Amino acid sequence: MNMVSISEDEFKTISGFVYDKFGIKLGEQKKTLIIERLQKILRTGGFSSFGQYFDYIIKEPTGEAVLTFIDKVSTHHTFFFRENDHFDYLNNSALPHLLEKCKSSGEGVDIRIWCAGCSSGEEPYTVAMCVNEFIENNRLRASDISILATDISVTSIEKATGGIYQAPSLAHVPPMFRQKYFTASGDGNFILKPFLRDKVLFRRLNLMRDDYPFKGKFDIIFCRNVMIYFDAPTRASLIGRFHRYTRDGGYLFIGHSESISRTTLIYKYIKPAVYQKA
Length: 278
Ligand SMILES: C[S@@+](CC[C@H](N)C(=O)[O-])C[C@H]1O[C@@H](n2cnc3c(N)ncnc32)[C@H](O)[C@@H]1O
Hints:
Elements: H1 8-22, H2 31-45, H3 50-59, H4 64-73, H5 85-105, E1 111-116, H6 122-137, E2 145-151, H7 154-162, E3 164-166, H8 175-181, E4 182-184, E5 189-192, H9 194-197, E6 200-204, E7 218-223, H10 232-244, E8 246-254, E9 268-271, E10 274-276
Parallel strand pairs: 1-2, 1-7, 2-6, 7-8
Antiparallel strand pairs: 3-5, 4-5, 8-10, 9-10
Helix pairs in contact: 5-6
The chain binds S-adenosylmethionine.
């Protein structure tokens, strides 16, 4: 079957649009990937060129076509307990510190966690397992700690709310947690138990917005393996927005392969890929 190829101009227009609207930097080396990822849509939609397809998505009035497009263009790879030392730090340092802070304020426990760029839910549900253990061990109420998870991708959010996962995604889930939080469906899939699924609120959100529709600030923000697709100025302005939405003493977790430029560092460095708002 013939592949539709992309011209220099078409790639420039499409990558410019993706950068302006979603912050994702598509360098020349991503060209083949983009051609492959969009090929099926072009074929089923009957588009003979990338130019024709792009024209359609920006004019399509509901915005659905842009959402389908960015779903295909962005990378959603994730799995449970990815970069596990973050969850050790969450359990042993961040949550105990935040609980102490709440207790000493005398205002009751209210810990708010946000997973920004959560993909299909494996990251926020890993957080939910840790939080559930922490709640049980400290005799807290379920409502004392809340988890919000957001992503730009409609299909990822749909998969996340469905809570059904394939075995490879669970490879790093400790056996005890596998038993406690999942039900094997018999066809090789694992279904998240409803009580854990209900701990996470999923919403679609573009991180490139100037400000976010949240009532309050967060004690912990996870934004891991998302900024890897952004350039330095985009990362710096996103970190600035995160900072505005972090409570004093709150934490920011980023991916281990990502970095925050020291010149724009407004958080205090704690350990690799963990920062705190002073
Ligand atoms: C590779 S996944 C990372 C998932 C998870 N945080 C992890 O570390 O396993 C990157 C996610 O970032 C999302 N993303 C990329 N650009 C975004 C944007 N501008 N706004 C919101 N989400 C975005 C993608 O849709 C994708 O699901």
